[in-house]
Known about the structure:
Elements: E1 8-11, H1 15-27, E2 32-35, E3 51-54, E4 61-64, E5 69-73, H2 78-85, E6 90-91, H3 102-107, H4 115-118, E7 125-131, E8 137-141, H5 146-152, E9 161-168, E10 170-171, E11 175-184, H6 188-201, E12 209-214, E13 229-237, H7 241-248, E14 259-260, E15 263-266, H8 267-271, E16 283-291, H9 296-307, E17 315-320, E18 342-350, H10 356-370, H11 390-397, H12 401-411
Parallel strand pairs: 1-3, 2-3
Antiparallel strand pairs: 4-5, 5-9, 6-10, 7-8, 7-9, 11-13, 11-14, 11-15, 12-13, 12-17, 16-18, 17-18
Helix pairs in contact: 9-10
Amino acid sequence: MVDRRPALVARCAGDEDVVAAVDFARDNGMPVAVRGGGHGVAGHAVCDGGLVIDLSEMRQVDVDPEGRRAVAQGGCTLGDVDRETQRYGLATPLGVVTGTGIAGLTLSGGMGWLRRKHGLSCDNLLSVRIVTADGRLLVADGSRNQDLFWAVRGGGGNFGVVTSFEYRLHPVGPEVFVCFVLYPAARAEEVLRSCERYLAQRPDDFAPIGLLGKVPETADFPPESHGKDFVALLAPYPGDPAEGERLLRPLREIADPIGDLSGTMPYTEAQSIVDEEYPDGWCYYWKSMNVPALSGELIERLAEHAAAAPSPQSTIDVWYQGGAMARVGEEETAFANRAAPYLIGIEANWEAEADSAENVTWVRDTLADLRQFSAGGVYLNFPGFLEEGEQLLREGYGRNYERLSAVKAEYDPANLFHLNANIKPKD
């Protein structure tokens, strides 16, 4: 989906390499792209004719199990961090695909399986080391460079190159119970509403995602179900596996399932349960929007659009929000729209480049049709190509946009870091 040719790639091994790369690009008037651990579907990790600051070799993770903290370099993936923290039965909220770079994920919020129990990735950020546009290496936390620390917790890559992230850790694993059950799509309203009602009784215990798609042709499912439309509930329980099996059982008994892949597994395996749906080398285009309610009409439209997807690998996802992520104030971090109870993700995933136009069109047409159900708000880690520009950013940041623009003017007035969900510096 993205074919750009940089003039130079700086493969950084440490903070000072990043400083040198930023200074070189600024002094020579070169466009700058920043690549962390990867998985950024908007394609901003590369640029034409400029300098790519590549952090992918900076993957060290240091864990303090007593203090329940971890410091991870900016090139780490979600899998890198989980592998090290799980040695001590600890985890920090990250995403849902192990190949996701922690940098882009965290800087634009970071939604994963722990969002209702422990909040977003950015909510668990204790400090960052960041190289700003003038080549300074700064530490930002609750007492140092507080405006910058506020901005990087949701404001994206606008303010510099983050070389390391310090996270708060929580007891999770090493084994967890995972609910993963598929029902016929004709039961979509019953399934999604049943999950909604059950979560109202247990607001923080687990964070499901509802998925609508087509049954894959694998041995996990009966041959007669292959290619049929499904609605699924996927929800790891971060506490005791036996308790998780008991608490998640109602989600597995809503109707007769097509297949039930639920079970106890290592947390690292639970984190990788959807990895095979996102192979390297495929094409991806994702958009999102928040909605205030799961009405019957909305669910019907979700099922119709999922059934019409040109690629059998595409899905429409219903992220149940709330819990810990909603208890952080709207202006405590740059991440906005926290009160929205649901996020709808429209994910086109396909293999052949020749099929790109129809898959992108499916996402855009679906989004346009569903817009009537939204009161505003998007998740900027699912941005498409950010083709809506400032309009999309204002929707994503809400009333935090103006403050972000002011912080941008302080730390990057010339907009050196503009290959991102770019916030223009305040005049």
